[in-house]
């Protein structure tokens, strides 16, 4: 059993490595305003975070991660390039898996740089690879931006496109939407009856809940407009499926994605960014020929990443969470900066998991 003192000591040691790379050490309050996180992730985050009410500050959460408060801090200064590191405890509810820790240490490195995104992505990945090299972990990379670009090329209405983009990080909901839009899954009978009714609210009784009658009527109108839209072409769905199935070493994945882009030209810019990143990584000594790429990687646990993503996993233990994760989150900086973006990429390490593997290097 790893003690808190041991985990803290390992976190401090790892943070020192990031300081050596030029990062400034920062700290963030354990209690974070819930409003910001709810605006970012919606009500779903309540199932994964510890929420409480403070008499003076209102609704607050025990810190679920460091990235959001670090971005907020950076957006106040706008200094670039800037490198930050931190270590401390984060808190996540684990109702679906009570065996997983709900409180653990996290060590991170964040880079805000206006220069080439490929160069910044490569710098962060190479630093994590170097720090974790003694532990024999399996590295895997992905790119949320490739799937997002594929969705943007679909010949569908903007409401449908927005729904798919909103659920990119929720694979099951994303798949359910694709199946519904393509006609693979017929609409529920209750929805059919609702849409056929001349006045669905006529016998609805008194309004109960937070939604007004006007909001409900607007939602019904949106459902009717969606039902009137033709099905999404099956060939386009198959192209999305082909993109998601790409799982090879980087050179072969790149070749495969270039082939897909022939039929899906809107994918080309994202594929070219992937290629530039591979070149930048190779220049930093990363063995790109052996580096794994999974187009669907990061879709279940990296909600604010919108481009390059990576993880370091313990070989042969798919049941364990990643030892380290990271990626690019430009869109997050734009949202927290109220429209002012600051290109950013970073990652975190869980020192407790490293210690469970057999101690530090």
Automatic annotation (TrEMBL):
GO biological process annotation, one example: histidyl-tRNA aminoacylation
GO cellular component: cytoplasm
Stretches assigned to the Aminoacyl-transfer RNA synthetases class-II family profile domain: 14-272
Keyword Membrane belongs to the record: no
InterPro entries: aa-tRNA-synth_II (IPR006195), aa-tRNA-synth_II/BPL/LPL (IPR045864), HisRS-like_core (IPR041715), HisRS/HisZ (IPR004516)
Binding site for L-histidine: 65-67, 92, 106, 110, 299, 304-305
GO molecular function: glycosyltransferase activity; histidine-tRNA ligase activity
Keywords in alphabetical order: Glycosyltransferase, Transferase
Pfam family of the protein (one): tRNA-synt_His
Superkingdom field: Bacteria
Subunit structure: Homodimer.
Protein name per Swiss-Prot or TrEMBL: Histidine--tRNA ligase
Gene source species: Salipiger pallidus
């Amino acid at each position: 059993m790893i003690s808190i003192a041991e985990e803290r000591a390992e976190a401090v040691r790892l943070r020192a490595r990031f300081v050596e790379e030029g990062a400034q050490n920062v700290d963030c309050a354990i209690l974070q305003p819930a409003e910001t996180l709810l605006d970012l992730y919606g009500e779903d985050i309540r199932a994964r975070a510890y929420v409480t009410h403070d008499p003076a500050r209102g609704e607050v959460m025990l810190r679920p991660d460091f990235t959001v408060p670090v971005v907020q801090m950076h957006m106040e200064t706008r200094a670039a390039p800037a490198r930050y590191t931190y270590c401390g405890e984060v808190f996540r509810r684990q109702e679906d898996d009570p065996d997983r820790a709900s409180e653990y240490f996290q060590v991170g490195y964040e880079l805000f740089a206006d220069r080439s995104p490929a160069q910044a992505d490569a710098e962060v990945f190479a630093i994590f690879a170097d720090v974790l090299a003694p532990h024999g972990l399996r590295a895997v990379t992905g790119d949320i931006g490739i799937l997002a670009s594929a969705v943007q090329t679909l010949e569908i209405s903007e409401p449908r496109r927005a729904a798919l983009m909103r659920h990119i990080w929720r694979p099951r909901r994303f798949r359910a939407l694709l199946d519904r839009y393509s006609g693979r899954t017929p609409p529920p009978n209750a929805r059919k009856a609702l849409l056929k009714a001349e006045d669905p609210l006529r016998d609805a009784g008194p309004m109960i809940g937070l939604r007004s009658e006007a909001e409900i009527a607007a939602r019904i109108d949106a459902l009717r407009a969606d039902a009137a839209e033709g099905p999404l072409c099956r060939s386009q769905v198959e192209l999305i499926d082909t993109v998601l199935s790409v799982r090879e070493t980087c050179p072969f994945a790149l070749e495969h994605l270039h082939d897909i882009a022939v039929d899906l030209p809107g994918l080309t810019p994202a594929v070219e960014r992937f290629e530039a990143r591979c070149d930048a990584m190779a220049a930093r000594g990363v063995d790109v020929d052996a580096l794994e790429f999974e187009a669907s990687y990061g879709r279940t646990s990296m909600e604010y990443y919108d481009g390059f993503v990576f993880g370091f996993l313990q070989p042969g233990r798919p049941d364990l969470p990643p030892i380290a994760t990271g990626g690019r989150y430009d869109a997050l900086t734009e949202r927290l900066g109220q429209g002012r973006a600051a290109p950013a990429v970073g990652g975190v390490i869980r020192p407790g998991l490293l210690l469970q593997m057999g101690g530090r290097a």
